[in-house]
Amino acid sequence: MRLTVPNRWFVLVVGCALSAIPIAPGSSAQEQNREPTTVDIIDLGAHAERLTRSYADAPDHEHPYYQSRFGSVGLHVLSYRQILPLHMHRMAHVAVAVVSGEPEIVQLHVTEDAVGPRSTLFGPGSLVYSPPYSGHRWTNPSSTAMHVLLVFASPPLMAPLDTNVYVDDDDDRLLLGGEPLVVDTKRELRSLLESGRPARQRRLPALSGKLTSLSVSATTTIDPSPGPTFVYAAGGQGRLRCAGTHRLQSQTLAFLPRNTACEVDSEPATPLALILFRPEDDGVSDILRTETKLYSQADEELVIRDFFRDRRDGVFLDVGAAHYRRNSTTFYLEERLGWSGVAVDALGEFGPDYLEHRKKTRFVNYLITDKAAGNQRFYRADGYLEVSSVSRKAAEDQALLYRGNDAITELEIPSITLTALLDRLEIAEIDFLSMDIEEHEPAALAGFDIDRFRPELVCIEAHALVQDAIFKYFTEHGYRRLDRYVSYDRFNWYFAPADTAGRRP
Question: Is residue 88 a contact partner of residue 163, using CB atoms and an 8 Å limit?
């Protein structure tokens, strides 16, 4: 039996904000939209007490402290006997620090091609991490105490794009998730004291490397970051020195503005256990941070340039290429970096412009699918050619959404698989694959021998209806999604071979 399912759980962000919005308890709406230029200190324990008094009858409540397109930080109060059923996220990495109480957490992870449960009661000082497609269930077994949780997410939990996906224990999608992680900050402190060193810092394998454990028994420095830094004191007592001296104690959250360096030291008998969260520490180059795209629909062009570091003379395969320049993911590569390749589209009317304007690109008129079966039905969106599709409904819906005109023309187009097409064109290797074919991506991938051609980077449109199939395909073929790019492009997912994806610890 499913018990209470709070609609608001972990949904700290209702849209993808373009700028940071740190939010302090009791601040005004005007203050909420201004990023502080000085250090902010929040007593999480005191704030949680106010929340539990104010929302004593509510099943759960959350208060956001920060939200941007890169991540979110917020406090969540889990009420008496509250149960959050088993759920997962498709995009967001979520780490939860237990501020008070002892919630029971069930995590489901992959063990030898099966889903195995791990159930534990976690007390204050614990940090529990759930990567995308991993399952987790939260329960407050107490009838007398509310449980307070500090939630870090990256990218932010964006409704309706990445809210909770409730699943059963045997849901096959859970096999796609990475193994969850538990960090015991008390154990981190013991390791520090046993080492005899003044500080111990390690990058945690969580939130794409944006989370760091820092244990302190003497004075140490927190280096400045080009983005904001959040410092959570999971245990101990001490001081933070930057723009004045600030007291740190268990259940304290400090917000450090961008480019701020601080010294931190602990009381002699109470070493500090700290968790550092840097939501903008994603390892991208200045191409993504400072430059402006020229041709692509969103920032696909900049992501591709960042991945290849503006490498010259590569080979691309652009499936669903459409217009030769408008909203193109490959025009910059050819025009500015000397790449060559193949553009494929089911609408032949795009071909003449490629012949005239893209001398290093071969345009071919095919419908890409899972098998070559002669002609296949295709729906031309007359109001907006770029959203034409094998699916009549998808073409109508997209054309109506973007152009207010759902006029459709039914066509018969010759079909072919990607593998057969590449063989016919005598292409043995490709560096970059771009695919945007309006919910037909899983069928096209089924006809592609990716193990043979092994593109270094794949940019693929990920509509909600086909996300699970796309993620499964690439996971099963040894590719890893590059989550550092999710904050920059909400339309597409990017994959690279796991052994060359530049995965950070």
Answer: no
Residue at 14 is within a domain? no
Ramachandran region of residue 361, left (φ > 0), alpha (ψ -120 to 50) or beta?
A: beta
Q: In this predicted structure, which of 121-130, 144-153, 280-289 has the lowest mean pLDDT?
A: 121-130
Helix/strand/coil for 56 = coil
Q: Range of 127's domain?
A: 29-186
Same domain, 249 and 382: no
Amino acid identity for residue 217 in this structure = S
Residue 457 clears pLDDT 80, i.e. is over it:
yes
Instruction: Indicate if 177 and 232 belong to the same structural domain.
Output: no
Give the number of other Cβ atoms within 10 Å of residue 151's Cβ.
20
Q: Are 74 and 65 in contact (CB under 8 A)?
A: yes
DSSP 382-410: TT-GGG-BSSHHHHHHHHHHHHS---EEE
Instruction: Report whether the peptide linkage leading into residue 160 is cis, meaning its omega lies within 30 degrees of zero.
Output: yes
Dump pLDDT digits (tens) for 196-223: 788 888 899 889 889 999 999 889 999 9
30: CB partners within 8 A, 6+ apart: none
Look at the chain and count its residues.
Answer: 505
How far apart (Å, rounded) are the C-alpha atoms in residues 138 and 119? Answer: 10
